[in-house]
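Fig. S4 source data, part A: sequence.
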Amino acid sequence: MISLKDGDQSRSMLRESFLDREIVLEPIELGDDLLVLLYGGSRSHIGSCILSIPRPTLRGGNKISCTSSVMNIVGHKDEEVGREAAEAITRVLNKKVMLVCGIHYEGLLENDLKQIKEICRRLVKRYLKSKE
């Protein structure tokens, strides 16, 4: 993991294969904040950017929720997996998260999309488990 706070230049990338291509979650610590790249498939790109900011839940109690702002590139559908990932990381780590998402495969079926979403969820869970 790159950490600009302490100068450590090691890098942490979590990967999982789907249809002979990798999907990658790459967290980069920027001081107290986190930049996360979620990309892969046949052509990595910038499809959606999600800024998720932690806040106390509006339901009361001590839980952390978040508010997110999204920017999408026209014609890209990366927001759904990107937003889910950014908000999950923000709620657990209580950090501002900027997640850039770009996963592309040609000719996917509905079941393929479900599998990609599940892969992204597993990558996020693995990352969060590493932070315990």
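Fig. S4 source data, part B ends here. The domain at 2-130 is CATH 3.30.230.90 (Ribosomal Protein S5; domain 2).
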